[in-house]
Amino acid sequence: xxxxxxVDDQPLIRSGFRALLDAEDDIEVVAEAGDGREAxxxxxxxxxxxxxxxIQMPVLDGVETxxxxxxxxxxxxxxxxxxxxxxxxEYVFDALRAGAAGFLVKDVEPEDFLHAVRxxxxxxxxxAPSITRKLIDRYVTQPPHLTTGAVLDQLTNRExxxxxxxxxxxxxxxxxxxxxxxxxxxxxxxxxxxxxLHARDRAQLVVLxxxxxxxxxxxx
Length: 220
Known about the structure:
It is built from eleven helices and five strands.
């Protein structure tokens, strides 16, 4: 059972998401919160698998809420998915930097919304390739961070290759096909890279890949 916390300052939005999620046999909405501070209290109490967090809220916004969740080792089991009305705005990338596992626009189709919740819960490919490309092309155009590039020296050649493929939006199965290895080996390469780079999840691995210059906009 996937446990979900809904975080949005609009009760009507929360009730719509709850109705959709509660209709699924494998998903349970364990609580709701109207702002980031209340969300942190609920997460510490209930340890949900997924926190669906609105980007703009009173008291504590979605980016700062995400940052505090990601910074707390006790909350490592909770993946944050940002919910926004506004599409690819700069604060969405800020949320990914802060530790969000991905993001959804509120007008997403119901089946895509449910799929995203399940994908985020298992920690697999959290950003669709089209979303990754648009996001990176728009916002990751600054020079590589030298310190991040140095950290990449810890990776083996196969791990670096796997990180590049993650940054292109590939799933573990697709990475396995590309590298001609088993899905389990692909997952192992990705997980080891995440551990070495201290990436909370695949979304942060994407950010690190572009910030370091390992992948650049236009060559993904």
